[in-house]
Amino acid sequence: MSAEAVKSLLDQLQQMAEETVERLTELDEEEFEEFAERRQQLTDRLEGLRSAITDRDRQQINYILRFDEVILRRMHALKDEAGHWMEQQSKIKVQKGAYQQAYAANSMFFDHRN
């Protein structure tokens, strides 16, 4: 039974990794988060079956792990994009704040042309 459970978990992990790499540019942050959570659940269950893992299973694990670098690279790129967006929003907020504070509510502005 445990050998079948290991095979099932590894097959699920492999399918998830392959599908994630196929859709890498389409996935958003939430989908990556779901992927990471689901993967963690499966690996936690696999950890409990560690004694039933065979050499063939280890080969499949190594195959699955080869997808990690590509997936992590994309996740870091999304993180960097989000950080850049937040930095831009902060700059915009500061600029708006400086402009709005420069003028009183009841003041008038005259534009003189020379």
Task: Describe the protein's architecture and organization.
The chain has helices spanning 2-22, 29-47, 55-65, 68-101. With 114 residues, it is mainly α. It has a domain at 2-72. α1 (2-22) packs parallel to α3 (55-65).
**DSSP summary, beta strand count:** 0
User: Taking all residues together, what is the mean pLDDT?
Assistant: 85
Largest sheet: none
Class computed from helices, strands and strand pairing: mainly alpha
Fraction in helix:
over 70%
Shape: rod-shaped
The helix-strand sequence is: HHHH
Provide a count of the helices.
4
Tell me the strand percentage band.
under 5%
Radius of gyration: 25 Å
Low-confidence stretches: none
Ends: how far apart? 89 Å
Secondary structure layout plus pairing:
Elements: H1 2-22, H2 29-47, H3 55-65, H4 68-101
Helix pairs in contact: 1-2, 1-3
List keywords for this structure.
114 residues; mainly alpha; 4 helices
Write a short abstract of this structure.
With about 110 residues, the chain is mostly helical. The chain contains four helices and no strands.
